[in-house]
Amino acid sequence: MGVDEAFTDFVDARWRHLVRSAVLLGCSQHDAEDLAQATLARCYAAWPKVEQARDTDAYVYRILINTFSKNRKRRWWGEHPTDVLPDIERPGDLADAIATTSAVRKALLQLGIDHRAVLVLRFFADLSEQQTADALGIPVGTVKSRVSRGLEQLSLDESLTELLQS
Predict the structure, then answer these.
(1) Domain count, the chain
(2) pLDDT score, position 91
(3) What is the mean pLDDT of residues 35-61?
(4) Cβ 6 vs Cβ 12: under 8 Å
(5) What is the pLDDT of residue 99?
(6) What angle do CA 24, 81, 83 make, to 5 degrees?
(7) Residue 137 resides in a domain
(8) Structural contact between residues 121 and 132, judged by C-beta atoms closer than 8 angstroms
(9) Burial, 36: exposed, middle or buried (Cβ in 10 Å; 0-12, 13-18, 19+)?
């Protein structure tokens, strides 16, 4: 398989996960797509190195996190979160899904970037503790403690508690 074919297969398999991970890190949908595209552009430029990495997914998510961090430092974030979402009429199931997504995003945004990144990589990207540690350049013990503290903070979030009770 050629370099372009291997890279295309990788992009086809991971695009949605990279975009969703970026959204969960705090990007808007459009910014998440831009971040995933920038990450994959960097991967393509060094594809032989990426492909030879011990764990390709961890390597790519590390690029995603690094690109995200660099972009946040440079960009002004003029958005202001709101507690009240506009009323939009949606079918029941879709409305519930939107409410759940909104509550989870809001709860994740209350966490620090370090805890949010660990939780997104562990539970959404489904990376192992070791892969998450490799992606973030931190020890496995730090991953474990951040997961524990992050989940503890999420368990105290009222919007998530209300979701579980309904």
Answers:
(1) 1
(2) 55
(3) 91
(4) no
(5) 77
(6) 105
(7) yes
(8) yes
(9) buried
d(CA 26, CA 35): 11
**Containing domain of residue 143, as a range?**
3-76+88-165
Q: Is position 81 within any domain?
A: no
> What are the DSSP calls for 53-115, one per residue?
SS-HHHHHHHHHHHHHHHHHHHS-------SSPPP----HHHHHHHHHHHHHHHHHHHS-HHH
**Residue-level pLDDT at 138:** 94
- Is the pTM of the predicted complex or chain greater than 0.70? no
Q: What percent of the chain has pLDDT above 90?
A: 46
Look at residue 82 and tell me if it is in a domain. Answer: no
**d(C-alpha 108, C-alpha 154), whole Å:** 8
Residue 29: Cβ within 10 Å count: 11
In which residue are the tokens 């958005």 written?
Answer: 79
**What is the per-residue pLDDT for 90?**
53
57: CATH? 1.20.140.160
Asked if residue 83 belongs to a domain, the reply is no
